[in-house]
């Protein structure tokens, strides 16, 4: 499990944001990603409970949307699932600071 802090200015598209996430975690373009999930640490739930986490859609239309639609805060955590088992094992985690 890798953790990193990413400072992002809430401008640009979701696609740009995902590119930055992959860059900071050193995820190569050919590596398989099973999903990106947003967990808000201030929602009072257990850190391991990702059943309520919001998945970031990665289709062409969603990637062109503005990053502000994700409602990220300084307590938001982006989970990048590289194992395919998001409920049990998280491979990478990023704290988002605004």
From TrEMBL:
Top-rank taxon, per record: Eukaryota
Protein name, as recorded: Bm12276
Protein's organism: Brugia malayi (Filarial nematode worm)
């Amino acid at each position: 499990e890798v953790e990193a802090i990413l400072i992002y200015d809430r401008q640009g598209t979701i696609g740009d944001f995902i590119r930055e996430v992959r860059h900071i975690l050193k995820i190569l373009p050919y590596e398989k990603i099973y999903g990106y999930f947003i967990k808000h640490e201030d929602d009072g739930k257990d850190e391991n409970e990702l059943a309520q986490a919001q998945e970031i859609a990665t289709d062409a239309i969603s990637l062109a949307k503005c990053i502000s639609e994700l409602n990220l805060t300084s307590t938001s955590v982006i989970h990048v699932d590289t194992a395919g088992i998001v409920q049990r094992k998280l491979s990478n985690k990023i704290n988002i600071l605004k």
